[in-house]
Amino acid sequence: MIDLQIPPRSGYLALVRRVVAAAASADDALSDRRIDDLSLAVSEACANAIDAQRAAGTRDPVEVAIELTGTAVIVTVSDHAGGFVPDEVDPIPSADDPGRLRHERGLGLPLMQSLADSVTFTPTADGTAVRLEVVVVT
Q1: Alpha carbons 1 and 74: distance in angstroms, whole number
Q2: For the whole model, what pTM was predicted?
């Protein structure tokens, strides 16, 4: 288990991606492509946590826990921004809808869900924990 605590600043996203990639490649269980997928999904989760904490005015660290189980790589990103309900987030228009051009942001949740094998959002006492799992294929 690897536990990171980063300040809620986007300058730390590259560090998180590097640590996730290094941990996920430690036992050669995931292909380079799947490591890249997981790193990008975690980066999106961290960016959302950072944005939410800034909006909430909290300077508490964003927590990133990386767990290697032998059958999966699991990364949990926890913020202290009060929480949100994923089902209440406005849906993004489909890629062929001209209205999509007005959406510069808001692609993080669907991106995480397409890159990880499993994504869960759990309310915490003061925020949200996002759990991303990529299954090891043997």
Answers
A1: 10
A2: 0.85
